[in-house]
Design a protein that fits this description.
The relative contact order is 0.40. This protein has strands at residues 9-11, 17-24, 28-38, 45-50, 53-59, 69-71, 75-80, 83-91, 98-107. The strands form two sheets. Strands 1, 3, 6, 7 and 9 form a five-stranded antiparallel beta sheet that branches. Strands 2-8-4-5 form a four-stranded antiparallel beta sheet, with no helix packed on it. The protein is 0% helix and 57% strand. It is mainly beta.
């Protein structure tokens, strides 16, 4: 299976990062993020920052190839205020890179 929308970003191992700006129309609680990635030489260690603060870290899983797309664990972000936010995904320098083709920020509603 290919990348969602046919495109992905590749972040190299040399301390690379990807940064995304997004807007939340109304304040949320119980907010989570989940990434879709491929990594043929995992695990690659990632740090996720929300508005400059470390929100969490996790390793990717080792895939068979660059076309083996997987979902990350859900990462709890907590409450988000209405307005602009930045999600930054940083790769540890001592690990290999990965491809990211999608991330989803959502509010859990039981």
């Amino acid at each position: 299976a290919g990348a969602m929308g046919g495109q992905s970003i590749h972040v190299d191992q040399a301390g690379g990062f990807a940064s995304y700006n997004f807007t939340v129309p109304t304040a949320t609680s119980n907010t989570y993020v989940q990434l879709r990635y491929s990594d043929d030489l995992g695990p690659t260690k990632l740090d996720l920052y929300l508005d400059g603060f470390l929100a969490g870290r996790f390793p990717t899983r080792d895939g068979v190839s660059w076309t083996d797309w997987m979902l990350s664990s859900e990462l709890y972000l907590g409450a988000l205020t209405a307005g602009s936010h930045t999600l930054r995904i940083e790769f540890y320098p001592e690990t290999y890179g990965a491809d990211i083709d999608q991330f989803e920020i959502y509010q859990y509603q039981p």
